[in-house]
Amino acid sequence: MEPLRAGRKGPYFFLSYAHVPPDEADDSDPDLWVRKLFRDLCGHIMHMTDVPPGGSGFMDRSMRTGQIWTTELADSLAGCRVFVPLYSPRYFRSSWCGKEWTVFGRRTARYVTEGRGGTPSAVVPALWAPVEDRQLPESVREVQYTHPELGDRYRDFGLYGLMKVSAYRRHYERAVLELARRIITVGQRVVVEPGQRTPLDTVPDAFAPVRARRTLRITVAANSLRRLPEGRSPDYYGHSALDWNPFHPESPRPLAALAAEIAERLDYRPDLQPFDTWHHEADGSTAAGPEVMLLDRWVLRDPEQRTRLGKFDVSHRPATGLMVPWNGDDPDSGDAQHTLAADAEATLPRKMTQGRQACRPAVGGIPDHESFGALLPHVVQWAAAQHLKNTPAQPPPGRGTPRFRLSISGDQDSQPPVHRPYTEEEDRDEQP
Question: What are the domain boundaries of the chain?
Fold first, then answer.
């Protein structure tokens, strides 16, 4: 078996897990228990190998709402020895986790000892919460995840359940020790060639076929390089409205990509649309789901776009939440701020009102990407509630249960009422 070399790049294992959305009523860390598991695994691996300090494992600590994926995450995923997915029902609904699985799965694996049968794999699943077989995507059903050596309590409750019940402490300690031993064994028996640093938003989601999630449309009304107003700096724009980055250079990614990432964390499937593709004639009804519009006030300097935004404002879209970023450090912002804010009020009075209902600071000029990340979940929650409120209930397809009518026959004083269903002819006769 190949010993672990201290100079090897990348952590011994990469912990892939689904972040739990924060609860507005509770400011505690929702992933606290995952962090404890990670520390316990790293401690065991440090004691049982010669890894250097900090080389045991990687856990994504930065992926909080409003923050971007990190280079450290990409490098760790490209260089780790073992991939440890933390199974839970939420895990397989996370496209982020599905993309991490895809990136690791693209790396070439081989056994250290030649002649071993089977396909080499350095994926060591851990059960965080019980998962039914039907919840597993096709792409992972052949991967063994209920290891007998981890104990029956582990299989029945998962690591989270063992951690939360004090009577099961010894079962938790046994399961984590055995899991660490398995990670080490796989890391010694299987060599996974280093991969390339891969932005996760460019790869497919390994779990996509089994997910039926809500869609969140994210419409971006912004300028592009080909249609900038006179005197406007091009530093914040790209070839499409979806490339708009109002918080450049502090934020390295376009606002639409950041919004899509946050939507994923909120368990939505983001549908990114530049406002350029919206046409009033083709929009005759309420959107198919909740929607968030990201407005670049500078786009109001374009008469054509301003006219189209006015038509969008009066269209029947009650589930659209408006967000208006405004970077005060933008050199062009000082003289234009009040004029463009007034233009937004005049062009989009209904959407501005809805935006204040959703979250007043969201339309007042969001100053930075951290504030944007903190406000977006509130706007999405409001838009989702409005969508449910304004969407008519759809009856299931097919013919409903036959109605019954009361019939009296024979001696009315002695015969009980007889119930019989309507005939199809009677049912048609009563239609208006």
Answer: 13-202, 215-390
Domain formed by 215-390, architecture: 3-Layer(aba) Sandwich (3.40)
Give the C-alpha separation, 182 to 180, whole Å: 5
Structure tokens at 47: 């004691």
Assign residue 10 a region: left if phi > 0, alpha if psi is -120 to 50, beta otherwise?
left
Q: Is the pLDDT of residue 431 over 50?
A: no
Element (H, E) at 82: strand 82-87
Longest Cα separation, the chain: 100
Q: Under a CB-based contact definition with an 8 Å cutoff, are residues 17 and 159 in contact?
A: no
* pLDDT recorded at residue 30: 84
Between CA 395 and CA 26 the distance in angstroms is 38
- The neighbour count for residue 320, using CB atoms within 10 Å, is 26
Q: In whole angstroms, how far apart are CA 255 and each of 252, 334, 411, 417? A: 9, 21, 78, 69
The confidence score (pLDDT) of residue 177 equals 96
Nearest Cα neighbor of 200 from 268, 104, 93, 82 is: 104
Asked whether the predicted pLDDT for residue 289 surpasses 70, the reply is: yes
Backbone angles phi, psi at 406, to 5 degrees: -90, 125
Distance CA 31, CA 33 (A): 6
Say whether 317 sits in a helix, a strand or coil: coil
- The CATH number, out of the four listed (2.60.120, 3.40.50, 3.30.1340, 1.10.287), of the domain defined by the range 13-202: 3.40.50
Tokens of 186: 């796989």
What's the confidence (pLDDT) of residue 28? 79
Identity at 389, one-letter amino acid code? K
CA 348/CA 354 separation, integer angstroms:
10
d(CA 178, CA 173): 9
Give the integer Cα–Cα distance in Å for 104 and 86: 15
What's the length of the chain?
432
